[in-house]
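An instance noted here:
***
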Amino acid sequence: MTAVRYPIALNAEAALSGPLGRAARESEAGLITGGDVRFATEAVGPAFPSREAALDAYAGRVDDERPGSAAVIQPEDRFCELRELTAARPPRPGTIKPMRPSYRGGHRWPTPAAPPETIWRLSVSYWRIQVGAAEPLPGPPEGALHPRARARARAKMEAGGLDAQALQARLTEPLRPVKPQQPLDIGLFEVRPPEAPHILMPDE
C-alpha cells in the first residue's frame, strides 16, 4: 500500500499552494527541512454551504463520486479531506438554557431543537515546520545562578511579586540541591564489610 506523502510547509495555506517538499514520514521531512517538524491538520479556505459546492471549488484535491465528474485521488496525494462542521460556535459552559418541556399524550417530552446549520471546509494534513526549533535556547541572565540571587527570586515568587525577567531567570537556571546529599540510612541488622564498604550486608 502506498503511503501518503504529506506536504511540508509553515502553515496549511502554504502546504496547499506551494509546499517546500513532500514526505511520508517525520524523519524524511526532517531531512528535507534540516530541522524539526510536527504533523498538523488544519482547515483552510472559505466555508461552503454544501458538499457539492466544496467539491466544485476543490476539484482534483479530494475524491468526487458524483456522476459526470467522478475523480479518484492517488493514494500518495490523499492529504486533503472535506469535513462538515457546525456553522455556529458551540455555547460556552454555563450559557446553555434548559429546554422547555411539552406535554403530549400524558408524557413529558422536551421540545425538539432545530438541527444546527452546517458548513463544509477543506482540511489539510501536513508536516509543519517548527520555526526556531533548531536555534539554541538563550542562556540564563548574568547572576541568575548565584545562591543569593536564587534566594531573592524564590522569596519574590512566594510573595507573588516576581516580574517577567526574574521569572525567566528562575526557569532557565539548572536544578541544584539545597543541601548536600545525606548518606543512606542503614538498618539495625545491616553492616558495611571492611573489604567492601560500598555495599550493605545483613547481620542477624
The helical segments are 12-17, 26-33, 51-57, 147-159, 164-172. The first strand starts at residue 6 and ends at 9. The first helix runs from residue 12 to 17.
